[in-house]
Amino acid sequence: MAKINSLEELRKIRSDAKEAMTARSGNAKVRVFASMGTVGIAGGAREALKALINELEKRNFHDVEIIEGGSMGLDREEPIIRVLRDGFETTYGKVTPDMARQIVAQHIINGQMISEWVIARNEK
Amino acid sequence: MKELSLNILDILENSIHAKANNVWLFIEEYTDKKDLFSFTVKDDGKGMDETFLASVFDPFTTTSTTKSVGLGLPLLKGEAEMSGGGAKIQSEVGKGTIVSFWFQHSHWDRPPLGDIAGTVLMMFLIHSSVSFTFKHQVNENSFLVSTTQLLDIFEGVPLSNPKVISGIQSYISSSIQDLYGGKHG
Questions:
Q1: With contacts defined as CB-CB under 8 Å, which chain B residues touch A67?
Q2: For chain B, how many structural domains are there in total?
Q3: Degrees (nearest 5) of the Cα angle B33, B38, B27?
Q4: B185 within some domain
Q5: Bigger pLDDT: B65 or A62?
Q6: Hey, are the CB atoms on B9 and A46 less than 8 Å from each other?
Q7: Among residues A33, A61, B144, B166, which one has the fewest Cβ atoms lying within 10 Å of its Cβ?
């Protein structure tokens, strides 16, 4: 994305984003739950989440909502990212920036979960 | 944690856990004869009573129910004191909490600030229901960004929208870079 230096330039993004949002009907197709506990932060949660949003932007995928997830009490698996798609909630553990980018490409956009990184999966 | 911006993110998360509606982060850097690096996190969350406040810098104090050791604040206080600085926490039940850390800016032992833009971005990305204000001062230059300001610009579009949040990221990064006169210091 082009470098943004002012609030005016930031304002210009709004109409694009609004258009992409109204193009979809009802709720977003994919919901991503992210949390920021002490252990997650020390383990790279911020970097993983930055990689995730930058990959979504790069691939121009907007049918997604990012929501505060709350801690799961699974400290040794942090950073954790949960993906809700097609009626299933899939939990990924020890997510690195590289993994986050692949989760975007394969699971969030294409619906193919990456089994080897999954630590839990529930029907929702 | 190897950079102060991660400690700051952790302290901001404490404010979120304390159910704050408003959270402020102020960073001040003076490389002139004041030689000071300081940051303050202020919130209007539930606050702490005197007993808990007195134990905040004890490594075995934590509000976590899943682990028994906190360590974040005591370690950071140690680093501040080794860098010619210190730490202070004021809190009142029902009113909120103010956490401040300061360091000698030029001190060898002061950890680098690191990716503060990334830390600020997390507040807008996952805690956009909390009103957050960030002000960063570097000598005579300053930058301010707030949830109120951004929600006003993006009226009706969530800040977590990938296009929007990437734009915000770019805006915050370039504004902070400008504070250091274009190059990151």
A1: 126, 160
A2: 1
A3: 110
A4: no
A5: A62
A6: yes
A7: B144
Can you tell me the distance from the alpha carbon of B29 to that of B37, in angstroms, rounded to the nearest whole number? 5
Please write down the HEC assignment for all residues of A46-99.
HHHHHHHHHHHHHCCCCCEEEEECCCCCCHHHCCCEEEEECCEEEEECCCCHHH
Spatial neighbors of B49 by CB under 8 A, at least 6 apart, are B93
pLDDT exceeds 50 at position B16: yes
In the numeric block, the tokens 């470098």 are attached to: A3
Q: Which domains does chain A have, with CATH numbers?
A: 26-123 (3.40.30.10)
Residue B184 belongs to a domain: no
CATH assignment of the domain containing B160: 3.30.565
Please state the ipTM of this predicted complex. Answer: 0.90
Interface test with B, best of A8, A38, A63, A75 (most B CBs within 10 A): A38
DSSP reduced 3-state for A37: coil
pLDDT tens digits, residue range B110-167? 999 999 999 999 999 999 999 999 999 999 999 999 999 999 999 889 899 999 999 9
**B113 in a structural domain:** yes
Does position A55 have pLDDT exceeding 50, yes or no? yes
Domain that residue B124 falls in: 4-179
